[in-house]
Amino acid sequence: MDVLVTPSPGPRKAWDLTDRLGRKVGQIISSAEDEFIITAAETRLDAPLSKAQRIQPSLDAAMDEIAKCLRGVCQFSRKEDR
Question: How far is CA 45 from CA 9, 10, 16, 33, 57, in A?
Answer without folding.
Answer: 22, 25, 14, 29, 25
